[in-house]
Each structure stands twice: as C-alpha cells, then as structure tokens.
Write a structure and sequence with these properties.
It is a single chain. The chain is of the alpha+beta class. The chain is built from 15 helices and 7 strands. It has a 5-stranded antiparallel sheet with strand order 1-5-2-6-7. A two-stranded antiparallel ribbon has the order 3-4. The longest helix is centred in the C-terminal third of the chain and has 27 residues. The two termini are about 40 Å apart.
C-alpha cells in the first residue's frame, strides 16, 4: 500500500528511460551524423581532466543529478547562460556511444571527447525494456579488479570451451554460451567521456528517466596513453592519471552502493537512508527477478558496436561486444505472442511517446502527470507479460531452444 506522503508513480517501473529508447525505433526526420562527424570532436584536454579533480568541481558533486531533477520538478529550466558555459564530463558506455543516438535522437552537442578505461565498473544488461522487442538495456555495476585478475583466465577458457565444443547439446549454446559471451570481459569497462554543457547534461538526465531509472554517480576514468593503438591489448591497470566523471549506474548496483555507504546489512533499506533527498529515494524502478536473464535486442546491440567502431575503441572490446548474443525469437508461439503483445500495447506506448514529446520542457523533461502515466503503462506492460504472455506465448526476454509447437 502506498504511503499517503508518497508520490504513487514512484512505486511503478520508471518507464521514461525505456520510452526514450523506443523512440529510436520510430521512423522520422532524425539527424544521423556521419562517422567522420562523430570522430571530429576535439580531444578533451589534460587541463580539463585535471580540473575535474578539484574539490569544488561539479564533476565531483555526487548529488548533481538530484539537484537538477529537483530543480526541474519545480519548473526551473537549466537553459540559461551559466548552464550553456559550465561543462560536465559524462561517461557513455551503451547506446550513447553511437552518434545517431547521442547527437541525433537525444540532440546532445558535446564539446570534446576522449576514450577511457574505468577499472571500477563493468557492463551489464539489467535495465528492463519491452518484452519481445527490446527486452533490456545496458547499464553498469561495480567491478572487483582483484577478483577479475584471479578469475579472468579461467573464465575466458571456460567461455571458449563452451563456444567451441561441438559436442555440447543444442540447448547449451542458447543458454550457457550466452552467459559465456556476456561475461567474458574481465578487464576495465571501456567507454567514451564527453564534455557537455550543464544544459545538455540536464537533457541527458531527463532523457534517461530524470533520476527515476539509472543513478548518477562519480567514478574515476583513465585516458588511454597517447601511444595506444586500437589493436594493442587493453591494459588491466591503466597507467594514466585518473580524473572524475559522471555516469549512470544500474539500479541494483546503486542500491548495493547506498547500503554499503550507510553500513546497511539487512535486505530492505530504511526510508531515506543517509539523509538523501526524498525524490532520490522514492524513485525506485521496477527490477526483474534475475538481472542477468534478459538479452538485449540485435538493434540495441548494433548501437553499441557501431558506436565502439565510430570512436575506434580497442579491437578486443569491439570483438567482445560483437560476440554478445542478442534476443532472438525461435518459435511460432513467440512470433504470435509478439504480434499480439505489440497490437495490445502498441497504441498505449505510442500515446505515451507522443504525450512525452508534446509536453516535454526545454530540457526534455516531461511534466509529473505524464511521468505517472508512463510509469503506469510500463508497469502494466510487464505485469501482463509475467502473468499471461510468457505462459501462453513463451519467453520474451531470452533466446530459447527452437519450438514450433503451439
């Protein structure tokens, strides 16, 4: 039961981040920068990197996203002169690697960029999307470098054993090999840091759910050495100086982080732990029972691989991304289920997309009543899948053994 003081929308799955990704599926006059434009930005200077480590820098403000979200909740727009001049360093690792998403769909105009390694993070696919179409989206969780050092070789050997063993059953490549592909990367996360204006950063926060989906955190990044070439091995321990950037963390990882910071050991966190703002705490997205279960779509994975190629990220990392297996419908039941599911929920999803676009403010943030409506629709989408569709039509999150029986 919802507490009288709470905004009931926050108890539902936050649909705004899924909504913005679904927009890219729709045809329309979206600007699509060419590959040369995507790599023509100047490199973020060493001076700007160093400036992020100054204590007073907003690059180190761990509550910046909350402050922006709260300010926008009260109708204030970050589009003034100061917002256009002050800059933020923002780490991209998922679909925002692709210029057609970051600079096209989202309309962000980065001032500079630099390829980086992030030793404390790893790539995940644990943010729920839409069953049968976009099962999940990318996020990050914390990584234990020492544990990765110990298990990297053994885990990689096991992965290749699964993938290269022709005697494995038909089910194994679909279920076991998927995890082998996804979990093969044991080195630091590879990504791109963009320098953006505070106004554009506010737009990023808005298009990523306005603080209701991912969580904004500050992490240490390391630029690749000037002598580094994409074909070189990816270093396990970067030798370049660290600098501070903002990035988006998966909900599960953020929950664990806040529990650790507060010294919480029990399962359920108390209300408003650590004195964080009420808006930040009560904005809890719905989480799937098994965060490692769902597979991203081929379309979504293509954004990651395309972006990695545009930015000339290490060949080894591009190969890793290319080998992650996407969700694939393998049965007639699933095909029918997808048609029925999208026919049932398509009009509602198109409606909330339209409302979100029409009523969005200057920073891209939707008004509270639209957010409530979006959250309710997305929650209903997943409830219908869990209670009806998966039982009648089969798995809409993960590839399973082909089965044409109805």
């Amino acid at each position: 039961m919802t507490h009288p003081d709470e905004d009931p929308s926050q108890d539902h799955f936050s649909g705004t981040q899924s909504l913005n990704r679904l927009r890219s599926l729709l045809p329309g006059p979206i600007a699509r920068p060419s590959t040369p434009d995507a790599v023509s930005l100047p490199t973020t200077t060493v001076a700007r990197q160093r400036a992020s480590s100054v204590a007073a820098s907003i690059d180190q403000d761990e509550h910046l996203a909350e402050k922006i979200a709260e300010q926008q909740e009260h109708g204030a727009s970050l589009t003034g002169l100061l917002a256009e001049k002050e800059t933020i360093l923002y780490l991209a690792y998922g679909s925002n690697l692709a210029s057609k998403t970051f600079r096209g769909v989202r309309g962000i105009k980065p001032l500079s960029q630099i390829n980086v390694l992030v030793p404390e993070l790893r790539l995940t696919f644990d943010l729920p999307g839409i069953p049968y179409a976009e099962p999940c989206f990318a996020g990050t969780q914390f990584r234990d470098p020492e544990k990765a050092d110990d298990s990297a070789g053994e885990a990689e050997d096991e992965a290749w054993d699964v993938l290269g063993n022709s005697s494995v059953s038909e089910k194994a490549p679909l279920m076991v090999a998927t995890e082998a592909h996804r979990n093969r990367w044991h080195k630091p996360l590879v990504g791109v840091v963009y320098e953006v204006t505070l106004a554009d950063y506010a737009k990023i926060i808005a298009t990523e759910g306005g603080g209701r989906g991912y969580r904004d955190v500050v992490v240490d990044c390391h630029a690749f050495p000037k002598s580094y070439k994409p074909a070189d091995p990816v270093p396990e321990h970067p030798g370049t100086p660290a600098f501070k950037v903002h990035t988006l963390l998966s909900p599960r990882a953020d929950e664990a982080r806040r529990h650790k910071q507060c010294g919480i050991t029990h399962t359920h966190a108390p209300r408003n732990p650590c004195g964080l703002s009420a808006l930040f705490i009560k904005s809890q997205p719905h989480l799937r029972p098994d965060p490692e279960y769902a597979q991203p779509s081929a379309r979504y994975l293509n954004l990651l691989t395309t972006g990695a190629a545009e930015h000339q990220l290490p060949i080894a990392y591009q190969t890793y991304l290319a080998q992650i297996r996407p969700y694939k419908i393998t049965s007639t039941r699933q095909k029918i289920g997808k048609v029925v599911f999208l026919a049932m929920w398509g009009p509602a999803l198109l409606t909330v997309m339209t409302l979100s676009k029409v009523f969005a403010g200057p920073d891209g943030r939707s008004p509270p009543w639209v957010v409530v409506f979006v959250d309710l629709v997305i929650e209903a989408v997943w409830k219908s899948y869990d209670l009806v569709f998966v039982k009648l039509f089969g798995d809409g999150e993960r590839t399973v053994e082909p089965d044409d029986t109805l």
